[in-house]
Amino acid sequence: MRAPDSWVVVGLDCGGTSDNATVLDASGRFLLDRLVESPSLVQEGPDVAVKALVRALDHVLELTGTARSLVRALGLDTPGPASADGVISSKGATNFSQPAWRGFDFRGALESQVGLPVVYNNDANAAALYAHHVHFGADAARHSSVSAIVGTGLGGGVIEAGRIVRGVAGMAGELGHVHIPMHGLLAEGQPLPRCNCGFAGDAESVASLAGIARNLLPYWLTRFQGHPLAGVEPVEAAARQVRAYGERGDPLALKIFEQQAMALGRLFTIAANFTDPAAYFLGGGVVEATPSFREWFLAEVRDHTALREEQARVATFALVPDLDMAGARGAAIAALETCRIA
């Protein structure tokens, strides 16, 4: 840990179970090199969750020996769906299921509580921004990138000239709900995958934990009779074990991950023709896998991304670094950029 030598911003990543916090000084130097977690308490409602974030703020300032008076702004990220201004969807969200969360102005409530400007992004956008800045460093403002974050769902982020593309309603970069071609991806007799959002054949319906549980695993269990995962209930619990089987080279698991890699490659192919980014980043559970497995998976995604020769010569494929810290750090970077512009 390092003491600040200037004004700072604080990044706060509010998740379904934990708040993660970090401190970034005006020069772009993080004062912490590890994860600082505390309970998010989001299941207890908005008022309790906002107070928990304030405690997370005070705790990380205490750890770094930083006075509250040195904090110029906060960066906040949460899972979506939420507006560009940090208002939780009127239908609620998986991590914010209580009725009190519907339409709740999370950013505004935190800003009112601490008396400091709060810059909001969804968690996938924040992770995408961090990956972009780590990869390009001082040249971040000269480049563009697209990130796909594979988790329970499929999050994403589009960075142009070093800044997050948010969209008018804050819904830009929702890569999971982009429809992708299914011909050649699905096996014989495999049903068209359906997403929890109501779409059929979008990227998330294949490349996500929910996609494994709802669509991929039930099909492949019919092709691998007697597989140990057939006896695991509920199917969501079985789906969480697929990665461990894949790391051991299990044929069923590899079929699932091959389809996921193909889906992500087709998604990146769409991005290549839509934004022509300099880099493609992949994050999520696969980043936490064994090195050999994650490198294999990234190579599969790259092989299924159809780039023109001119693009292939200059495009980079990489993993999102420091995934457990990426959200808080990306939120802090967004806050720092806002302060510099102001």
Brief overview:
The chain is an alpha/beta fold and 342 residues long.
Structure description:
38% of the residues lie in helices and 17% in strands. With 342 residues, it is an alpha/beta fold. It has helices at residues 46-64, 106-114, 123-136, 209-223, 235-240, 242-247, 251-274, 291-303, 309-314, 323-341; strands at residues 8-14, 18-25, 36-39, 71-78, 118-122, 145-150, 154-160, 163-164, 279-284, 316-319.
Sheet of most strands: 5 strands, mixed
Number of H/I helices? 10
Structural class: alpha/beta
- Stretches where pLDDT is under 50 for at least 5 consecutive residues are none
Oligomer: single chain
Average residue pLDDT? 93
Q: How many strand elements?
A: 10
- Percent helix among the residues? 25-40%
H/E element sequence: EEEHEHEHEEEHHHHEHHEH
Spatial extent as radius of gyration: 20 Å
Beta-strand content: 15-25%
Categorize the overall geometry: globular
Strand order in the sheet with the most strands: 3-2-1-4-5
Taking the alpha carbons of the first and last residues, their distance comes to 28 Å
